[in-house]
Specification:
- The protein is 76% helix and 0% strand.
- With 270 residues, the protein is an all-alpha fold.
- Helix 1 packs across helix 3 (34-58), helix 8 runs parallel beside helix 10 (168-178) and helix 10 (168-178) packs antiparallel against helix 11 (183-209).
- It has helices at 2-10, 17-27, 34-58, 60-75, 83-94, 96-104, 106-112, 116-136, 148-160, 168-178, 183-209, 218-244, 253-269.
């Protein structure tokens, strides 16, 4: 329940859900090495599905519109001139890089996913990117102006979040801002890009997460955490969309840096 709540709160905020889960696991004394550690990584990937299902429910109408726009564009040249087709195509193209990178680097990702030092460095170093993106952000492009190139570049930025501590939402929102999108449009696109990627990751890791054995999370714990993540994430999405309408994502930087420094100190003292 604790890890499900942590996942739900942090998945869509630019503070790294993977990093927070790893920190929480260490504080709770859970095994992060060996076969049990692999099971915990699988558990993390699966409970992210709960958060993503919250996004599916929250953006259900948008998803239906995207699918309709994509399907209509496949059969009609007139509908391919509409913004709905371009937006759907941009989201589809944006999902390709993380799919390729995730499969190609899955063993390396499992290794770095166990490193608190990597989490701390990711939290601190990527904070500079959030600040830079906000300073350079023109925010003069609405959602309807999204292009396929935007989708591809923001999708490539999503790959950076394979490093724990970076934050998938932080990377994609920053990339959207650097492409000139307004903050709300960049955030909505970040949510939509995350749905296929995290659903696929959860399905891929399901076997490890539900394996029984010493230190393994098991099916019951995984199910409970996924449900908790769904409930908490729904509120987190609503909060973030309201927040970014009026505030900069750079507001999260002091927290990221403070947590990163605290983790480094904790590692040094243990």
């Amino acid at each position: 329940m604790v890890l499900g709540a942590v996942e739900g709160v942090t998945e869509f905020l630019p503070i790294s859900s993977t990093g927070h889960l790893l920190i929480s696991e260490h504080l709770m004394g859970l095994p992060t090495k060996g076969k049990a550690g692999d099971g915990l990584i699988g558990f993390t990937a699966v409970i992210q599905v709960g958060a993503i299902l919250a996004a599916v429910v929250y953006f259900f109408r948008d998803i239906v519109s995207l699918l309709a726009g994509f399907g209509g564009g496949l059969v009609s040249s007139d509908k391919r001139q509409r913004p709905e087709w371009t937006f759907a195509l941009a989201v589809a193209v944006g999902c390709i890089p993380i799919g390729i990178a995730g499969l190609a680097l899955r063993h390396a990702v499992k290794s770095i996913d166990k490193s608190l030092i990597t989490v701390a460095c990711g939290l601190i170093v990527f904070s500079a990117v959030l600040l830079f993106a906000e300073r350079r952000a023109a925010q003069d492009r609405p959602e309807r102006s999204l292009t396929v190139l935007d989708g591809l570049l923001i999708g490539l930025a999503q790959c950076v979040a394979l490093v724990p501590g970076v934050s998938r939402s932080g990377a994609t929102i920053s990339a959207g801002l650097l492409r000139g999108l307004d903050r709300v449009s960049a955030t909505r696109l970040s949510f939509l890009l995350g749905i296929p990627a995290l659903l696929a990751a959860g399905a891929y890791e399901l076997k490890d997460a539900t394996t029984s054995g010493p230190g393994a999370p098991g099916t019951a714990a995984t199910l409970i955490a996924t449900v908790v993540a769904f409930v908490v994430a729904f509120g987190s999405i609503a909060f973030l969309l309201r927040f970014v309408a009026r505030h900069s994502i750079a507001a999260f930087v002091p927290y990221r840096v403070a947590l990163g420094v605290a983790v480094l100190l904790g590692v040094a003292l243990t």
